[in-house]
Amino acid sequence: MRKNNFAEEGKALLFTLPAMIPLALFWFFPLAYVIYLSFMEWDFMSPDKLFVGLDNYREMFADPAFFQSLRVSVLFCLGSVLPIIAIGLGLALLLTSKIKGGAVYRTLIFSPWVTPTVAVSIVWSWIYEPEVGLANSVLKMFGSDGIRWLEDPNWALVGILLVTIWKSAGWAMIFYLVAIRNVPNDLKEAAELDGAGVWRKFLNVTLPLISPTTFFLIIVQMVQALQAYDQINVLTQGGPAGSTRTLLYLYYQSAFTSFQIGQASAVAITLVVGCVLLSLASGLVGRRAVHY
Amino acid sequence: MTVWRKLGGSAHYAIVAALAVLMAFPFYWMVTSALKTNDEIWQFPPTLWPHDPLWHNFADAWVAAPFARYMLNSIFVAAAIVVIQVINSGMMAYALTHMKFRLKGVFTSLILIGYMIPATAVYLPGYIILGKLHLLDTYGGLILSNCVSIFSIFLIRQAFLQVSHEMIEAGQIDGASHFRILWTILIPLTRASFAVLALITFIEQYNNYFWPMLITKDPNLQLVSAGLRSFFVEGGAYGLKWPLIMAASAFTIAPLLVIFVLTQKTIIQSVNLSAGASKG
């Protein structure tokens, strides 16, 4: 019996190690390492790391660039998540009833999501070209002078957000299409019998019943927004004047451009804390406030 | 009443069609821009379709940088990662759902914790570790560092939980080994989830840019996104060659759009499964 148990444990290891070893090597150990580095001063080259305690964090909280990046990250989250949810839901409501060619339209709207962010961002950088780009050509038809999309600090983030929203709205739509289809018909009919119009029916029946999907999408999109990199790298590289430098971008600039590994690690920890808080919130709120 | 309904119906139809065209328009714009001459592309107002479409722009762009190499790199690395993830996610999910062992609780909580950690935040230490292992600038590094995904494990675990226990018990009574049960009972029953895993992982890895760009400096090892991006930057240095850049973007995107059109049902089904997986 004892021996049997022993064999069983061995087999379990055989089944789990192919996943656990890479997880440990490229996930858990790096996490521990970045926490350690955040207490060190190191320039990547020198053989010795200097223990500086909480200095990196103190400097981070005294650094205006950190707060600017924090602000950009928050704006990026809100400015991408809210439109993605609203547009995704709107599209799903439009496509949920049977219309001719519905499947084709669904395909077209969803297609940006599968394409590489780098390639489509390059296409958008051509659309944003100030003189003859598509965006300004359309604006000029309406008598505007056009916008310097990627060079104006007031507009650069908007430009990046538009690409982000365009890429993910169709993805949110697919989730909502499924959720709306799962709303029981008898509930809608009951509401109709009570004399509820289309709008009331939506507010009182559909919207509460699809709230788990809304909640799921908000969390997933926020975590994605905190980690957005490709479109920023192609379109603005954090500029102009830091107006599109998110926390993640600040992290990589201080790590791989100015080689302040300790400082960079402290910013990374801030990101980790942000994502963990979001996940925990989804666990807590998800169980209480959301209809299942 | 019916007149109004009809009017509402066509308005609805028109809105949907307009939105779909709007969403797909950047792709159309990419292709037509790729076909223009350098003179025509700088004309104002822009033309919707080139006067004289230059189809050879695609061939010119294809040889202007080693795109065949980039694309093969991406396909090879993504395919290798898919194969490894199918194996290690399947085995891990099996252990978590159908085996009893002492470390089960520890492994489960580690995976749950890992799910909350943003991958991008550990790229810096990951880079240093990969350097210590002498895996920077190698295919091995590109593949190994992406060869496990917590999402994939969750996805398969969710699928295994839905297989009825009677089927497994029947296998156990027949004296089948764990490996046999996994291979001949569970995997055939959960094919759909494995298909989703393979597709989503392939797309994600083919599109992957940030991490592969960080860990490979050798142009021969660049994946297609990084290759395209350096072509874009160089094009900027020698006066922007927008038509060629658009052509290169087009053939980078094309394989994905083809895969998507062919496997639409599976990809859209993945939405259902992924919502389920993250709730579990």
UniProtKB/TrEMBL annotation, chain A:
It is found in: Cell membrane. Residues 70-282 form the ABC transmembrane type-1 domain. It is a multi-pass membrane protein. It comes from Paenibacillus glycinis. The chain crosses the membrane at residues 12-36, 72-95, 107-127, 155-180, 201-223, 264-286. This is ABC transporter permease subunit. The keyword DNA-binding does not apply. PROSITE patterns: ABC_TM1. CDD domains: TM_PBP2. Keywords: Cell membrane, Membrane, Transmembrane, Transmembrane helix, Transport.
From TrEMBL, chain B:
Residues 71-263 form the ABC transmembrane type-1 domain. It is found in: Cell membrane. Keywords: Cell membrane, Membrane, Transmembrane, Transmembrane helix, Transport. The chain crosses the membrane at residues 12-31, 70-94, 106-130, 142-160, 181-203, 242-262. It holds the Pfam family BPD_transp_1. It is a multi-pass membrane protein. PANTHER family: ABC TRANSPORTER PERMEASE PROTEIN MG189-RELATED, ABC TRANSPORTER PERMEASE PROTEIN MG189-RELATED-RELATED. Belongs to the binding-protein-dependent transport system permease family. This is ABC transporter permease subunit.
